[in-house]
Structure formats: structure tokens, C-alpha cells
């Protein structure tokens, strides 16, 4: 796919349009190559050498045999739609006819959290560890680990709206392709929205299944109604103890990370607090003296910064927890998430003592290849439920790459 003949016969806008179409085409080629590499260099050898079972590999890799032909099909359609002069006159309808196939990724994206956890667990096996290390040191890996390859399809999904918008941006308003491109953008956004919902529900269930109760009375019936995990992360309580806090749509659950039979889980600490009964207090820096000492964060009795208090308005619970966050930004993320949940459950926004602060930003897992333990996020702040297919930061990155391409940088 390339412009043929004298490029002076094409307007500047048409050249930009064809470059944007080629960007889509080339990205599909790269994705196919990476998926084939994941199968031939990782999946098949590990199966042949019995490093992992077929069931384990299927859980980690998903259905590669279905994804590769899906993207090959788009390449074929784009090639067939290319004219003698190397241009694609109309791409909108081609994409519209192809997009429904992306529904195959619903299960793949929903399973990613569990797949990553299984892969991390298998890395404790020396045979798996040695194999993956040899692959990482080989030229074909481009210094990317296995999970980076497995995460590429999800990263690709969120680029489709951006790529289509870029094509549309360089398409004249009176072009016959405009309506089709607009329809294609709507379709892909609907597909990505459905994938987001499925992934969110899957993530929520994953962590609910990892909760461990010391007493069955702790198992609040509302836990079965939770479909969304708004955010979670590591905080410290007033005595300096490390807690992993989960804010589900219906419940706030404080836990302690523990390991049982080589399985990481979260032991529920005190009774979960229904969000409908939740009270939130934003505490001023220095207002509370925190006891204990941990990693030099504060010494015994020092007045703490970046703290807030959650409690239950239900007298039968009698709970109040003063929680410490590492910095003001992540504190504000927690406050914003808590306020959102309380507004949804209680019908009115709670009043906080301090100002609105910075708006909450949800962590995007779109392009990031995080290697942190999914089960124990860093102390630095909450792990907000991913807008799996969010696009703002990608849009900026994509536009930047296009500008560099145009300027030859």
C-alpha cells in the first residue's frame, strides 16, 4: 500500500488521508507479526517442552488462532480496496463490515487480570523463569517480556477510534466516505464500551474471590451485588499497619494482604462498610498524630499529612478508620472515588472539609505494560478501576507521533 505515480497529482489533504490509512494498515501488519511471534516463540515451545500445561497456556494466551486470521482479514480487505494508483478511495464500509469480529476480544480482555496472575505464579517455577529469561535475552523479543506481547492486542483495540478519527480529519466534508467513517467510529466505541463493562465485572469478581473471611459474619450479603471495583490500593491505618483497601460499588472493604498455600489473598479486616452507610472526613495535615513507625514515613506520635477518615453512620458497626496516603494527589484520588460512590448510593454528594482539589484520574491500562504485582499495587496511591479502553492520553501520544512523522523528526 503506497501512493504510485506523481504525488503532485494528489492534494496535500489526500496525501495525509492516505498516510493515515496506511498507518492503520501497517499497524495491523505489526500486530499480526507480534501475535505470531507470541505463538511460535513462547506458546508452542512451552507446550512442546511441557513447561506449562495446555490448559495453563490457553488461560494465559487466549485464542491466538482466532485473533491472527481476524487481523489478516482486514489486511486482505484493505489490499483489495486499493486502486491502481495505490490509494484507498473508501475505507469506511470496509471497516464497518470488519469491526464486529473484534467482539472476539471480550473474553480475552476480561481474562487479562487472571491471566497475568497465573503467569506471575508460574514464573516462580524455575523452568518457566529460565525459559522466559532466555527469550528476553534473544533478539526477537526486542527486550520485551512475554506479558508485553500478550498486552499488545488490548493496546491495539483502543487505537482504532483514534486511527479512524485521523482518517476522517483528512477526509473532505463532501467525500462519500465521511458518513461511513463516522458510523465506524460509533460502532468501535460501542464495542469498546461493552469490553470495558465485561472487563470491569471480571476484575471485580476476581478480587471478591480473593477475599478471605475470618468469620462468615463478615461476608456482607451486598458483596454478591458488587459488579464494579471503583478503586483499590495500599493504605496505612492510624497505628501504621499496612492495609489493602477495596472500594466496590456497594461496599468499602479493608483487608490485610496474606499468603495461604502459596496463594495471595486478602484477609478481611473488620466488618465491610456498606457505601450507603459511609461517612467521609477529609482531615487537615497535622490534625492527627499517627502511632507506630513504618519505613520512615513518620515516627511515633508525629503529626501526619495526607490523611482522611472513613466511618459508618450505623451505630451497630461502630467503625472509624483513619487512613494515610503517601501524597496529596493520591489522597485526592481516593476522596474523589469515595465521593462518587457515596453520591451514587446515598443520592447526595457528601460535604468535605477541604476544597475540590485536583480531579480524579483513572489509571489507564491501555498502553502501559506494568510489571507491578497486580495483587499488591504500590503504596503510592490507589489502583483505580481501569478505563480499559480510555483514549485521552493515547490521543495525545498518537497526535504527537503523527506530528513527528510529518516533520520528519
Give structural notes:
The protein has 409 residues and is an alpha+beta fold. The chain has two domains: 7-207, Dbl Homology Domain, Chain A, CATH 1.20.900.10; 212-360, Pleckstrin-homology domain (PH domain)/Phosphotyrosine-binding domain (PTB) (PH-domain like, Roll), CATH 2.30.29. It is built from twelve helices and ten strands. Strands 1, 2, 3, 4, 5, 6 and 10 form a seven-stranded mixed sheet that branches. A three-stranded antiparallel sheet has the order 7-8-9, with helices on one face. Strand 2 and strand 3 form a beta hairpin. The radius of gyration is 25 Å and the shape is globular. Residues 292-300, 349-380, 386-398 and 401-409 have low confidence and may be disordered. This is Neuroepithelial cell transforming 1.
Features:
seven-stranded mixed β-sheet; PH-domain like; disordered C terminus; Dbl Homology Domain, Chain A; 10 strands; globular; 409 residues; alpha+beta
CATH class of the largest domain: Mainly Alpha
Count the E strands: 10
Q: Unreliable segments (pLDDT under 50, ≥5 consecutive)?
A: 292-300, 349-380, 386-398, 401-409
CATH superfamily of the largest domain: Dbl homology (DH) domain
Question: Tally the helices: what do you get?
Answer: 12
> What would the principal axes of the Cα set say about the shape?
globular
Mean pLDDT: 82
Second rung of CATH, namely the architecture of the largest domain: Up-down Bundle
CATH level 3 topology of the largest domain: Dbl Homology Domain, Chain A
How many separate domains? Answer: 2
Strand-residue fraction? 5-15%
What proportion of the residues is helical, as a percent range? 40-55%
Instruction: Please outline the major beta sheet.
Output: 7 strands, mixed
Amino acid at each position: 500500500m503506497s501512493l504510485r505515480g506523481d504525488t503532485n497529482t494528489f492534494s496535500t489533504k489526500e496525501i495525509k488521508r492516505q498516510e493515515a490509512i496506511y498507518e492503520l494498515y501497517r499497524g495491523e501488519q505489526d500486530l499480526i507479526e507480534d501475535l505470531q511471534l507470541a505463538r511460535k516463540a513462547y506458546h508452542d515451545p512451552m507446550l512442546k517442552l511441557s513447561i506449562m500445561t495446555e490448559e495453563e497456556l490457553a488461560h494465559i494466551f487466549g485464542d491466538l488462532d482466532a485473533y491472527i486470521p481476524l487481523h489478516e482479514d482486514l489486511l486482505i480487505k484493505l489490499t483489495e480496496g486499493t486502486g491502481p494508483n495505490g490509494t484507498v478511495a473508501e475505507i469506511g464500509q470496509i471497516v464497518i463490515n470488519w469491526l464486529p469480529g473484534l467482539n472476539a476480544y471480550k473474553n480475552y480482555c476480561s481474562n487479562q487480570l487472571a491471566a497475568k496472575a497465573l503467569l506471575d505464579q508460574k514464573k516462580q517455577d524455575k523452568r518457566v523463569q529460565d525459559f522466559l529469561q532466555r527469550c528476553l535475552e534473544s533478539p526477537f523479543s526486542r527486550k520485551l517480556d512475554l506479558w508485553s506481547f500478550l498486552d499488545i492486542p488490548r493496546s491495539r483495540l483502543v487505537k482504532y477510534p483514534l486511527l479512524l478519527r485521523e482518517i476522517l480529519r483528512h477526509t473532505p466534508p463532501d467525500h462519500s466516505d465521511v458518513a461511513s467513517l463516522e458510523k465506524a467510529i460509533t460502532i468501535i466505541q460501542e464495542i469498546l464500551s461493552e469490553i470495558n463493562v465485561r472487563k470491569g465485572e471480571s476484575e471485580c469478581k476476581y478480587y471478591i474471590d480473593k477475599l478471605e473471611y475470618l468469620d462468615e459474619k463478615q461476608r456482607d450479603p451486598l458483596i454478591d451485588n458488587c459488579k464494579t471495583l471503583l478503586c483499590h490500593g495500599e493504605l496505612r491505618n492510624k497505628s501504621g499497619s499496612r492495609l489493602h483497601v477495596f472500594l466496590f460499588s456497594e461496599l468499602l472493604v479493608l483487608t490485610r494482604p496474606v499468603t495461604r498455600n502459596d496463594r495471595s489473598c486478602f484477609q478481611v479486616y473488620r466488618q465491610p462498610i456498606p457505601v450507603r452507610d459511609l461517612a467521609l472526613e477529609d482531615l487537615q495535615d497535622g490534625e492527627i498524630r499517627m502511632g507506630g513507625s513504618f519505613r520512615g514515613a513518620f515516627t511515633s506520635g508525629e503529626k501526619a499529612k495526607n490523611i482522611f477518615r472513613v466511618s459508618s453512620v450505623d451505630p451497630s458497626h461502630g467503625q472509624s478508620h483513619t487512613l494515610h496516603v503517601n501524597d496529596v494527589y493520591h489522597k485526592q484520588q481516593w476522596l474523589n472515588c469515595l465521593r462518587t460512590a457515596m453520591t451514587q448510593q446515598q443520592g447526595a454528594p457528601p460535604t468535605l472539609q477541604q476544597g475540590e482539589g485536583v480531579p480524579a484520574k483513572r489509571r489507564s491500562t491501555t498502553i502501559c505494560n506494568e510489571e507491578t504485582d497486580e495483587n499488591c499495587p504500590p503504596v503510592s496511591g490507589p489502583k483505580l478501576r481501569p478505563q480499559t479502553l480510555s483514549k485521552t492520553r493515547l490521543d495525545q501520544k498518537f497526535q504527537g507521533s503523527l506530528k513527528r512523522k510529518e516533520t520528519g523528526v
